[in-house]
Amino acid sequence: xxxxxxxxxxxxxxxxxxxxxxxxxxxxxxxxxxxxxxxxxxxxxxxxxxxxxxxxxxxxxxxxxxxxxxxxxxxxxxxxxxxxxxxxxxxxxxxxxxxxxxxxxxxxxxxxxxxxxxxxxxxxxxxxxxxxxxxxxxxxxxxxxxxxxxxxxxxxxxxxxxxxxxxxxxxxxxxxxxxxxxxxxxxxxxxxxxxxxxxxxxxxxxxxxx
Length: 210
Prior knowledge:
Mean pLDDT: 94
Helix content: 25-40%
Number of helices: 7
CATH class: Alpha Beta
Strand order of the largest sheet: 3-1-2-4-5-6-7-8-9
Strand content: 15-25%
Shape: globular
Number of strands: 9
Structural class: alpha/beta
Order of helices and strands: HEEEHEHEEHEHEHEH
Distance between the termini: 33 Å
Radius of gyration: 17 Å
Low-confidence stretches: none
Largest sheet: 9 strands, mixed
CATH architecture: Alpha-Beta Barrel
């Protein structure tokens, strides 16, 4: 394909900057411990200083890949596909998710919510960031709110986000990995005093799996 044709296909969501794809165990949130095929899409301008996949930020580093190829790989492995990033909603997710659903796959997303919702989703994990707050479309549709706790002030941010998300969303607090020793006890105490919240941990890192 010509460069201009590739650019147009990316703009339409028919090709996406694919960073990596792999079959593993979901380590965080509501579906912790379940098998899933992860599709990591490059490109993110949210800029979390503690992001553990900063190599995903520059979309130009990751090859535009046809959605048909991504779907063909995914259907070999799992019934559940998790689309993550980067920030996947910075791209049009309609073509990819429609094709995944056509293969009878469950389709999840992990997103900061910084861009309007596109695509067809069975589960939306919203993990909001202070640097670029979620859009109303994602607040309204989220099944799960997962707030990363890096310092004590993040508990206030978590409550602010819980007030904006729809009332059916399941609420999680998760320690930022580099601060887990310091913040986990505070999260445990907070959840015990505010039982609408649940504790989420990055169990895949404890288990030493991708």
